[in-house]
Amino acid sequence: MRKITINDIAKELGVSASTVSRALRDSYEISTATKKKIMAYAKQANYHPNPHAISLRERKSKTIAVVIPDISNYFFTQALYGIEQVALSNQYHVLVYQTHDQLQTEIEFFNHFQNGRVDGVLVSPANNPDRSFEHIERMSEMIPVVCFDRVEPSLQMPYVTCNDYDSSFKATEQLIKKGCKRIFFIGISDIIPVIKLRLNGYKDALKKHGMPILQEDIVMCDAAQLLAERVRWLLAKPTRPDGLVSAVERYTFTVYDVCNELQLKIPTHLRIISFSNTPYAHLLNPSLSTVVLPAGEVGKSASEILFRKINKKDTKFESSNITLNCVLTFRGSSA
Amino acid sequence: MRKITINDIAKELGVSASTVSRALRDSYEISTATKKKIMAYAKQANYHPNPHAISLRERKSKTIAVVIPDISNYFFTQALYGIEQVALSNQYHVLVYQTHDQLQTEIEFFNHFQNGRVDGVLVSPANNPDRSFEHIERMSEMIPVVCFDRVEPSLQMPYVTCNDYDSSFKATEQLIKKGCKRIFFIGISDIIPVIKLRLNGYKDALKKHGMPILQEDIVMCDAAQLLAERVRWLLAKPTRPDGLVSAVERYTFTVYDVCNELQLKIPTHLRIISFSNTPYAHLLNPSLSTVVLPAGEVGKSASEILFRKINKKDTKFESSNITLNCVLTFRGSSA
DNA sequence: CTGTTAGCGCTTTCAT
DNA sequence: ATGAAAGCGCTAACAG
Fold first, then answer.
1. Taking phi first (over 0 means left), then psi (-120 to 50 degrees means alpha), and beta for anything else, what does residue A4 get?
2. Taking the alpha carbons of B76, B81, B83, B88 in that order, is the dihedral positive or negative?
3. Is residue B201 within 8 Å of residue B162, measured between CB atoms?
4. B8-38 per-position pLDDT tens digit
5. CA-CA distance, A329 to B169, in Å (whole number)?
């Protein structure tokens, strides 16, 4: 089956290409008769317009890019649900890019977005120790860009985030209430703002309750393997911690493994509460106390802001930052 | 920052557009001097070609579509890793589409793929009771299409699948070996070939061991809610089953919930083994016996076949079907 | 109501 | 070694 163009239809029906174009877009200046004839023919010939020609001509791609660290993270898959929903209702397509938390990869992706490949970008930036955001800033001068979750408030663009500080504060307090005397914290890097917020909530809760903040109780790692070693070392100490606030779901599971290995019982020897969006938290052994981010809502809000900007309904970004609330659920791991 | 084109560069440097085009593609017919000048200018001006213009002109989009039922399924996220890897190495972009197992949604997506939006499609088809595959067949007459996991061997296109029959057979035998007297099976629909294969493996294992195949022990549902009801009913019977082979990961968790609700102990009252790709199977309560599909490999193989066809290295599909092997791991839930 | 024409940004003959 | 021109498929003045 060969690809059929507007010119093929025009020739076949003895009219001009512009007539076909207008008819197919249901223009008022075409007679009902020709319109019907053309539409019928197009349908039976299974005509679909060439999207590149349209994009070139119209200067828009009807496509957005979503740049995230990792698609196998439940938070991001759920966020993608929300994004997809909004994109489809705007008749847009979605390109998905995983950075695997590598800045260089992210930069390369952004280079591809220029000159019309996409009309907008949703990004949850990669771990960025150098704090080099030129690629994001440059992009946002050309097309709308909205950050979510991993937001950089210093960047001049809208963002959607959660009450990570408060949630972490409350989570830590819960462990204290349950009797924990020494609580440690795990994350990726305090350079990542959302991790920093969770860390600060943890620290302030300790402070409020007159507990010391130990440097060795703050474990930041960008690889699960390294984290396992650090945690193993920490939990093997005679004066080991008896509580954990985890900012990273998959690291929590690493800690579960280390506890099994060291024969430490959760929650008897270690109470745990974790930021996590897995729907199976309640089925774990023991069931996991969680801080759940409203992932779908985050994706939905972020893309709504994006499309408002793409459709030029909104030009100022100052008012469009949004903060959504997490849900804390206490289960066996912190009992 | 305005978008810069090849003409802008040409004008700025006092050469023609074709010279710029040739220089940027490192053509041998351009002098080293002009080449250098043009490349330097393009770089500092942060020039990137308009992909739609190239796609229109070259008649290819450098983009593939991946159509899957559900992105929050670990099998598919892992498959996407493999796909992404191969796509990037071919300098291709990836459009992701979720059908949510709705045929109509899938058909609409496929309509968008015509006329050059994508150069190829990887698809794991939606549940399709009507068995209407015209949209896939029509597409594969225009561009390369490769199926994976949810394959339809009757379709004239290459596919990558797993040894689902054998794996299911072995899984069932394991339960029998452990002493199960009555084993039930859960899935989405036996219209889906991969589910059918797993069902047949289950049936044949029962047959081999002289166990009856009861119709009420084959539970097919396309919604977790319905499944919960059916399973609740089945497990509340006085003559309830004492074993389960689950073809669907998320349904397995539904069964865990129902067991908790009915105060049935796994594996004491019900032994379970499940097709599942969650990396946290060993952390569940009890730990879950699994049949793990080599998801990354599936994605990688399928996209390699696809790109072989896109790059015209391969025109015949007969030889390119691939079957990969699952890994069975027995844990607490079937002990 | 319909056709002619120009042009979106790029590549590629065909000249020179 | 470089430029002029045509054309990928489509839309939108402009003309009639």
1. beta
2. positive
3. no
4. 999 999 999 999 999 999 889 888 989 999 9
5. 40
In this predicted structure, the answer to whether residue A1 has a pLDDT above a threshold of 50 is: no
- Is residue A25's beta carbon less than 7 angstroms from any atom in nucleic acid strand C? no
Q: Which two tokens stand for residue B306?
A: 């696809």
Two tokens, residue A174: 């819960």
Q: Which CATH superfamily is domain A1-49 in?
A: lambda repressor-like DNA-binding domains (1.10.260.40)
**Domain A164-293 classification at class level:** alpha beta
How many Cβ atoms sit within 10 Å of the Cβ of residue B311? 12
**Whose structure tokens read 């210093």?**
A154
Quick one: how far is CA A189 from the chain centroid? 17
Residue nearest to nucleotide C7 (CA to C1'): A57
For CATH 1.10.260.40, list the domain ranges present in chain A.
1-49
The pTM for the full model equals 0.93
Contact B93 A95 (CB under 8 A): yes
Q: Which two tokens stand for residue A214?
A: 């130990």
CA distance linking residue B303 with residue B296, whole number of Å:
11
Q: Which residues of B touch A141 (CB under 8 A)?
A: 1
Which amino acid belongs to residue B131? R
A203 φ, ψ to 5°?
Answer: -60, -45
| Amino acid letter, A73 | N
The Cα B233–Cα B252 span in angstroms is: 16
Give the tokens for residue A5. Answer: 């163009």
